[in-house]
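User: Before I run my own analysis I want an independent prediction to cross-check against. Here's the chain; please return only the structure tokens and, at the end, one sentence I can use as a sanity check.
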Amino acid sequence: MSIKGMLIVISGPSGSGKGTVVNELRKNEMYALSVSMTTRLPRLNEKDSVDYFFRTKEEFLKIREADGFLEHAEFVGNMYGTPKSYVEEKINEGKAVILEIDVIGALQVKKIFNECILIFLIPPTKEILRERLIGRNTEDAIVIERRLKKAEDEITQIDNYDYLIINDKVLNAVNQISCIVSAERLKPKNCKLKVKEFIGGE
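Assistant: Structure tokens:
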């Protein structure tokens, strides 16, 4: 019996710890991180096909016109998208592909790839979220309040997700996601059991 790969979409407000959780999950070889495509130029130490697929605007638009993205968006003059081909390639390899993306993008992906698993990650309380944002020491009070307001808006979409994880401790969140993936893989539709061979065998 072989195991079918799947797409795991992880969302959550800024400060929820998505990046840290995803980095822990990637230590397990059964996971693969979805690589996005962008029209922006590479930053120092960024590598093509590792950090992003770096493409020209013309190349990006050509792929978009061919319906080659699970989702796409424009931000500060640059275009970003999740290539279908890369995700499908990793799923066919039996990987649990992780896509870390915002709520809007996640719901776009769900419309196109209905079998994907949506996971929403949040801290235990709004105050803890505030403390995490302040603790970064990278943004002023006005920006932090905007992020908290956006978090409130995003949380209203929780019912559109399959699972909700309270990220109190990173390893707890990682273990819960691993349990979700294991349970999903045990569903008959995700197990490539050759029924005829099984019945016909001893």
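Sanity check: Residues 170-185 form the longest helix (16 residues).
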